[in-house]
């Protein structure tokens, strides 16, 4: 299991200070809406300047018509990131379109599909998708698997089932991780490291428990020791 640290801080400066503090650790860094919209591709270069071995997950959750998604995926290729994601609810045609477009490249990033956001409660999810989380997450995962993606974003609670309906090698990346039982914030379905390990999760994403702590470096160290 690998650790992915979410860089969701209010300024580029604060994000880079966090990266600097944890630069000796072999972790993934997740760049999402807040940071990418504000700081753009230069921010990715700044991260690599601190340590070129950091792997970057660009969490932009693409959702659009198939052609626009494939075009966006091609633009992402130019950024040199190691992983990005799309929404499974964009449909199989859109997901296959993205993978087809990337076939032209010798080396491509890992591509994941978002199933159910970890902030949804069961009731809130049903209001939008008219189905329970577990059932729909399995279906989204099968769609992503059949479309040639490498894995999905889900909560730790769906990970084992998703692997059983696809393959063990089909990756799961789970946000909503509170490594040592920290405050959940707006996340509804949170799990700790032990739970994620038992659910065969490949990547855990941890944001606030690291960047809101007074000593992010020591939390990262403690997490890595447990993985
Ligand atoms: O601070 P916290 O650990 O809750 O951060 C989780 C990160 O994972 C945030 O950047 C959030 O946008 C992202 N995320 C999520 N649920 C998903 C996909 C991404 O929480 N399904």
How are the SSEs ordered, and which strands pair?
Elements: E1 2-6, H1 12-21, E2 28-32, H2 33-50, E3 55-62, H3 66-77, E4 83-87, H4 92-102, E5 110-114, H5 122-129, H6 133-146, E6 151-153, H7 156-165, E7 171-174, H8 193-198, E8 203-206, H9 208-211, H10 216-226
Parallel strand pairs: 1-2, 1-8, 2-3, 3-4, 4-5, 5-6, 6-7, 7-8
The protein binds cytidine-5'-monophosphate.
**What gap, in angstroms, lies between the N and C termini?**
6 Å
Kindly give the count of domains.
1
Query: Structural class, please?
Result: alpha/beta
Number of helices: 10
Just give the CATH class.
Alpha Beta
Strand content: 15-25%
Bound molecules: cytidine-5'-monophosphate
* Annotated CATH architecture: Alpha-Beta Barrel
Order of helices and strands: EHEHEHEHEHHEHEHEHH
Radius of gyration: 17 Å
Helix content: 40-55%
Task: Please name the fourth-level CATH homologous superfamily.
Answer: Aldolase class I
Strands in their spatial order, largest beta sheet: 1-2-3-4-5-6-7-8
Rounded mean pLDDT is 96
């Amino acid at each position: 299991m690998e650790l992915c640290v979410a860089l969701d801080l209010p300024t580029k400066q604060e994000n880079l200070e966090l990266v600097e503090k944890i630069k000796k650790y072999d972790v993934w860094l997740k760049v999402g809406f807040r940071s990418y919209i504000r700081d753009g591709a230069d921010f990715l270069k700044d991260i690599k300047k601190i340590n070129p071995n950091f792997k970057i997950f660009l969490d932009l959750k693409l959702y659009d018509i198939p052609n626009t998604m494939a075009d966006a995926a091609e633009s992402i290729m130019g950024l040199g990131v190691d992983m990005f994601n799309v929404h499974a609810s964009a449909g199989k045609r859109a997901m296959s379109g993205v993978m087809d477009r990337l076939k032209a490249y010798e080396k491509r990033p890992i591509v994941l599909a978002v199933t159910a956001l970890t902030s949804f409660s069961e009731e809130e999810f049903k209001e939008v998708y008219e189905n329970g989380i577990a059932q729909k997450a399995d279906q989204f995962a099968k769609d992503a698997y059949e479309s040639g993606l490498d894995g999905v974003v889900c909560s730790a609670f769906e990970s084992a089932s998703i692997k059983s309906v696809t393959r063990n090698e089909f990756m799961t990346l789970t946000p909503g991780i509170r490594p040592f039982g920290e405050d959940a914030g707006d996340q509804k379905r949170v799990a700790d490291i032990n739970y994620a390990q038992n659910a065969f999760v490949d990547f855990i994403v941890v944001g606030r428990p690291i960047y809101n702590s007074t000593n992010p470096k020591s939390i990262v160290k403690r997490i890595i020791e447990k993985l």
